[in-house]
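Forum: Protein Structure Q&A
Topic: Joint prediction for protein chains with partners

I've read a bunch of threads here and the consensus seems to be that you should model interacting components together rather than docking separate models afterwards. I'd like to see that in practice. Below is the full input, 306 residues plus whatever partners are listed. Could one of the regulars post the assembled result?
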Amino acid sequence: MSVTAETIASYLEQYGWSYERVDDTHFASGFRSEAPEPFSVHVTLAPSWVFFAITPFVGAPKDIQCERKLYRHLLRLCQQINMAKFAVDSDGDIVLAVELPREHLDYGEFADALDALSVYAGDTFAAVQALASDPAAVSAFAEEQDLDWGE
Amino acid sequence: MAVTPETLEAFFGQYGWTYERTGEGDLGTDLRTGFRGDTGVFRIYVRLVENWVFFSIAPFVVAPRDPECERKLHRFLLRKNYEMNIAKFTVDEDGDVILTVELPTASLDYSEFADALGALAYYADDAFTQTFILAHVPQAHSLYEEKQDLDWGAG
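Posted by a regular:
Agreed with the consensus. Here's the joint model:
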């Protein structure tokens, strides 16, 4: 059975996050971590999918050097994380997203999705923010590569 | 119900694709399959570990050598990640591009298994030509850059 907006509302309440029901298919919520600003989480019901996204996770990089390092870092992170992925939207902003089939979505899966967003956001934000804004920032993956070369 | 290598073999039988069981060890059980699409022949690696099953085309495209190719390619892959459902592009430590689907095994049934293979096959065929060109031709433009140019023109 496909979950409804009412089910999503009840799952958010069970998870203990306050939320705003923006329209019939869209919920806005969020959480605080060690990052300076709270993260905005959007939960959207599509015909076959439920999308969970922190958008924007980090604003679009302004510098081409930042872009180059940041994109590679995000794609390397994508290989390491389960359930979630990084993406770039049409404005160039960075998005952290989880998507689950709407059919049979139970509370455990719903909670896993929010857990994944929270954990990965907390773990990766500082480095992603630095790479997006500081051309001199160095990705941990670039450091690993340098170590490989040194061997 | 726990998903075992035999469960995956039964799913492959139902899906109608041949497969080969290629390994079993501490890292999990590995199977290999593949398909011929409109744009190429793709080999799919399936790895079953404790709580997850991974379906990957690796390498989907080998690492670009030119830095400008890399920047355009990576932006394209991240834009694709925004549009795709169930699948994602990643890059490994060598810079090779991987197309992957990962599913939790807790409630994995045949329909999810079929969706995973269907998604990999669809997105591989859909994205291969553009991904390959962006990885190797510095003058190539991604379809997203063209869309952006059109947006600017409209402003």
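Chain A has four helices and six strands.
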